[in-house]
Here is the input.
Amino acid sequence: MPLRSVMIRPGINKSDTPAGSEGQWIDSDFVRFRYGQPEKIGGFEAIGQKKISGPARAQHTWNDLEGRKYAALGTSKALYIYYEDAFYDITPLDTAISGATFTTTNTSTTVTVNKTSHGLIDNEYITFTSVTPPSGTGYTSTDFELNTFEISNVTANTFEITMPTASTATTSASGSGVINPYVEIGPTIQTYGYGWGTGTWSGNVSGAQTTTLNGALLNDTNGTGGSGTSITLTSSTGFSATGGTILIDQEIITYTGVSSNDLTGITRGAQGTSTAAHSNGATVTEITNFIGWGNPTTTGEVILDPGSWSLDNFGQQLIATIKDGKTWVWDAGLSNPLERRAVIMTGAPTASRLTITSDRDRHVIHFGTETTIGDTSTQDPMFIRFSDQENYNVYNPTSVNTAGTFRLDTGNKIVAAVSGKDYNLILTDQAAYVMQFVGPPFTFSIRQVGSNCGCIGQHAAVYADGQVFWMGNAGGFFKYDGTVKLLPSLIEDFVFTTSGNNIGVNYSSNEIIYASHNSLFNEINWFYPAGKPLTDPSLQNNRSAVYNYVENTWATMTLSRSTYADASTYAVPYATEYVTTDTPNTSNLFGATNTFGASTYYAHEVGVDKIDLTGNSSAIPAFVLSGDFDLPNEGDGQFLLRVSRFFPDFKNLVGEAKVTLNTKDFPISTNTTTAEFIVETTTSKKDTRVRGRLANIKIENLDKDQSWRFGTFRADVNVDGRR
Here is the structure.
């Protein structure tokens, strides 16, 4: 028989059997499809010199008015600016705690910080201001004020920090300083917690009474000050002498009696809630006769979102919103901006699910935000509030500004929002809306453009090439290009299955899914967590689904990235990899542990290998595997085939590639014969001795400094009988 060219269609088919996927590729890793053929992806190199604290959950790049390039990265612990291959910590600070003193030991780097009822917890990040260092220790005020500390060994009135250098003297409760805790962002993982059962929302309390704590509570089972079984209140008026139930933050506590201003016989973490630290002055509510909310669940069935950010720029200013929290501003146009922290956005809502800037019309838009600015209890997950044009500090609408509000009606919550070229696409858990600037008096028009197309997570949607692409919360991939469309995909079952041997996306970790655009190759990437049942939401992103929107092909990878920014500000894409066991080592961070893990920053499409922060390189193990093919025009598998020669066809082959040709007799059989050979740029043919009714081919690289793009191979195939 003449030589046979084997044509394999581009893209991955994971919805059929190997035999049913004849003429298609069925599996891949670290491979993209370009011009109809598979090729190994580009390499990636670690940048930024250090590892940052916690998992990065958002990333944004932009230029200031002088052309300087910045990248902002928001993690569960901090907010960083990447500039000229270094990281700068700009994390906002929480309420200051004054009156701290220091205890030191000669030759030791451990310093004990003394402050009665400080309300801090283990592993919290802090810095200091207004420090008078203890005399004789060799410390200066800048040793405290210019550094960040992860605290440890916390008690009610003390905690420890690790200094950059050892003390030269032993002191006791000397010096002074102001403690500045980092603003709370949220947990490193998405996890289960406790919520309220059935009942009327916003119910009422019969004989309600509130007061405040007189002294802090630690994250333990004890009372005020970390000991005993009593809690000291500012006032016990209205609290039952025979016992009752109180609520502090989200912890429920029961008590059996009252003595002066003490609640006695306390039981922490009652009714299925968890014990937590509560600061001095925290609100205490008497809920013994509370009706309307229902009882708290006794099992952790409510999914608690991980700490996350919305990041965007308003000109040269970074707008950063903590999910369900406040919005902050960092101005690259100020003098010495890298020495400044982000500051609160004045006049803005104090609780928003997410925030974007509407570039064309210059508004800042808050989604899932407050109906009454400054009152977090009025946060509505379907409510939208936008600023005055060109002024993000003004949100109350008047006759002379363009600020305003709107509430969506289809869905339970706004999940994501993406700024397009001349519109903003809003995605709830059920529907899609287009928000367009129309000018005064209405400012924006908002219309529903899709239903049953809810988005799976805050960062699971991305704008590219005039379209918005997103992952659906009930399966499937969608795009909006004037109308909402479901994207056909042969990897959908693989991505969204929740049972069996190949568990797909973990819906309980949906908020860490990250969509990105790689404009260099016309690709949309969805990085998602997979491989664990829904009852285990601790999973991190470990797979990616890749869609080429020009060639309409799909691929799958095990590339693990928590954020990804397209090549725009920078010449290549930048992405973060989170490792739970890594320890952050950014400059000026002391006492750091691996409690929160750490993220490494990578420049992508650089070279052909993976290069870590130490400069060590390792291979990227790319491969692509075909479905089964048989002898054409000879009974569709009726006859055995014999492959005696293989003629490779590679484009841009760097180094070597491994080719494996497998055969088998029946679709459900295991491979019966295998031919493996190494192909180099000089390889014109390989002699083989394989036979079977069906055959498949695998292309891969095994080592560093290797890259390849496959073509159309030919084989010398002959009929070899019926059995």
